[in-house]
Write a sequence for this structure.
């Protein structure tokens, strides 16, 4: 089938009233949670995951994807008006966005953030549309050794780019892999680490795990401190940026799109890093770098475009290679598996209506987001006034009901609470949850592909280095790991 | 903080030992025919090695007087503990009390956690939230909630 036919098929699928409604619901929820500090897309997707079991797989993924990219739009509103980032991806937008708001230019800052996000999101989707087929054709040549190496690379990059200590990130990844060992072994059918508990024979469910690690632990972290929610009292007028604003922002938008897209495709990078890289690039090439942080529109346009482009670009490795590049994609990977769809090259070949339906829904979602974000900004500002003491009991309840509804069992609530407390302690001790979830999602496939490779090679680990694609991927992972250790030693010796 | 870090490392080391022991019991197999304990043993062993390295790092830093401070300094940890206990009690009582009663009690507790709000606000807010979740999950998504001893829900 030709690309045009695929896109037409995608429109047919995405324009079904049910899918359109879930797309709208997803981007609406995404915008909302992007705006509200204290709850992010990872927690929201985790909380809503059980709800999606009751709807069709395509509607489920369209909605969950909408939450993810919708949150990138919404997060900028709090950064600009409150100087509090709604999401980690919009931290950098605070620097110039809030200064613009203080100078009475909140409108153009919000407008540019939304328009930049729209342009970047759309361009990134074009990239996804055109690159999906070549990526899939390439990935179809992958065997067990290549998949094993690719998963190792994804985990290594994720731990390398961890915000804090790399050793802690590696411990988390290994803990995630250990958790996947619980349950029935895929190859021999042996029960592993179940300790005679029937509930554990299928292993840990992804849903209570991510709900606990991200939903409950976020609540536990937030309730121990008081979140200040002072909205800047400024009149939001002239949402459309001026011609001069556009002249200054067009370069940053295009550069931000390119940076975001490529970093989004890479495992481990994602929207947070993209927005920071875009900001530093804009500052470096600007003729007035000293003015950054005082309300430069370039400092809003670049990072906002980058985080959106990155969010859309991240779907390429997930949908075509079956490798989630970040933690949100890891949860979506889990959602696809729960719905009986195997992410990877065969997804596009076997379920073209699903694949292209999801891609096209993102185009539609981007259009919806512009209309949700620009005219409704005064409404979103009002939402910001919902106090956290009122918000958190509802988040807790959604988590509880979500966990319970999995198997109609209160045991799942206890498992979720256990992971919630664990996640809370991890956050306190600066251990990141992302490598754990990524390893937990990839673990069963990693185990399977490692054992298959070793059986094929008659026990020789050299199989990972004798096959060219696998060798390149695994060597890259080892080089990254080596460089990281080397730079640590160098830093220590300099001290 | 450093004491907590050290305890965390000891936890990882203990976990690693139990995973490795369990993996050996499961049969490791050979590289040409890896058994069900093959990967868990590898990940468990690596986990232990890394935790040991981190423990040494933390202990060296501690001997230099770095990384002090209490993990719960300047925060309202009592509120966190209250949420954990409330959810724990909720999970244990849910099958007996049923969804509507257990959730109502939980919501009243959580809504009153920050400050003692007026009953006139807490009770209607709790009922409203329960009503919404009941409609979404039970009526729309057909989730079967436990009816409890009163057989409602």
């Amino acid at each position: 089938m030709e690309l045009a036919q695929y896109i037409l098929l995608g429109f047919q699928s995405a324009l079904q009233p049910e899918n359109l409604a879930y797309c709208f619901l997803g981007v609406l929820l995404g915008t909302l949670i992007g705006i509200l500090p204290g709850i992010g897309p990872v927690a929201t997707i985790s909380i809503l995951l059980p709800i999606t079991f009751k709807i069709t797989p395509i509607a489920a993924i369209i909605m969950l994807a909408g939450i993810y990219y919708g949150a990138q739009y919404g997060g900028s509103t709090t950064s600009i008006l409150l100087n509090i980032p709604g999401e980690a991806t919009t931290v950098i937008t605070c620097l110039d966005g809030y200064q613009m708001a203080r100078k009475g230019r909140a409108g153009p800052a919000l407008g540019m953030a939304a328009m930049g996000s729209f342009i970047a999101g759309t361009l990134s989707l074009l990239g996804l549309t055109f690159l999906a087929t070549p990526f899939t054709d390439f990935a179809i040549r992958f065997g067990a050794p290549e998949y094993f190496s690719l998963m190792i690379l994804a985990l290594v990059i994720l731990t390398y780019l961890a915000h804090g200590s790399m050793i802690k990130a590696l411990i988390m990844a290994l803990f995630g892999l250990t958790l996947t060992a619980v349950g029935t072994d895929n190859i021999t059918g042996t029960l592993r680490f179940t300790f005679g508990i029937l509930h554990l024979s299928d292993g840990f469910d992804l849903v209570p795990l991510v709900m606990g690690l991200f939903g409950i632990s976020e609540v536990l972290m937030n309730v121990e401190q008081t979140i200040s929610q002072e909205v800047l009292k400024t009149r939001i007028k002239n949402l459309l940026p001026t011609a001069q604003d556009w002249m200054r922002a067009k370069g940053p938008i295009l550069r931000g799109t390119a940076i975001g897209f490529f970093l989004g495709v890479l495992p481990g990078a994602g929207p947070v890093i993209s927005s920071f890289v875009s900001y530093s690039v804009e500052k470096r090439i600007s003729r007035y770098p000293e003015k950054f942080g005082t309300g430069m529109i370039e400092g809003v346009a670049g990072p906002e475009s980058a985080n959106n482009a990155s969010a859309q670009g991240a779907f390429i490795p997930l949908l075509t290679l079956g490798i989630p590049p970040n933690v949100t994609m890891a949860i979506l990977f889990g959602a696809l598996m729960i719905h009986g769809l195997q992410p990877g090259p065969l997804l596009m070949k076997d379920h073209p209506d699903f694949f292209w339906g999801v891609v096209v829904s993102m185009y539609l979602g981007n259009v919806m987001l512009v209309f949700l974000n620009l005219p409704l900004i005064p409404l979103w500002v009002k939402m910001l006034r919902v106090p956290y003491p009122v918000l958190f009991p509802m988040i807790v309840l959604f988590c509880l009901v979500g966990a319970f509804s999995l198997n109609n069992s209160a045991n799942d609530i206890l498992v979720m609470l256990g992971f919630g407390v664990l996640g809370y302690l991890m956050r306190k001790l600066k251990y990141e949850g992302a490598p754990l979830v990524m390893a937990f999602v990839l673990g069963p496939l990693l185990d399977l592909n490692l054992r298959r490779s070793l059986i094929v090679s008659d026990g020789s680990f050299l199989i990972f280095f004798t096959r060219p694609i696998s060798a390149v991927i695994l060597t890259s992972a080892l080089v990254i790991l080596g460089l990281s250790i080397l730079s640590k030693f160098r830093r220590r010796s300099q001290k | 903080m450093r004491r907590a870090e050290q305890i965390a490392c000891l936890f990882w080391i203990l976990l690693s030992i139990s995973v490795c022991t369990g993996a050996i019991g499961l049969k490791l197999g050979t590289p040409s025919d890896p058994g069900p304990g093959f990967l868990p043993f590898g990940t468990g062993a690596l986990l232990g090695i890394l935790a040991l390295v981190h423990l040494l790092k933390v202990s060296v830093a501690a001997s230099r007087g770095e990384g002090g401070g209490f993990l719960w300094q300047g925060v309202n940890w009592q509120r966190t503990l209250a949420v954990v206990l409330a959810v724990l009690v909720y999970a244990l009582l849910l099958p007996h009390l049923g969804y509507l009663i257990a959730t109502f009690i939980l919501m009243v507790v959580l809504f009153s956690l920050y400050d003692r709000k007026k009953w006139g606000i807490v009770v209607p807010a709790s009922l409203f939230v329960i009503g919404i979740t009941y409609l979404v999950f039970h009526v729309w998504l057909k989730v079967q909630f436990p009816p409890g001893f009163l057989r409602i829900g």
Remarks:
- Chain B has a mean pLDDT of 87.
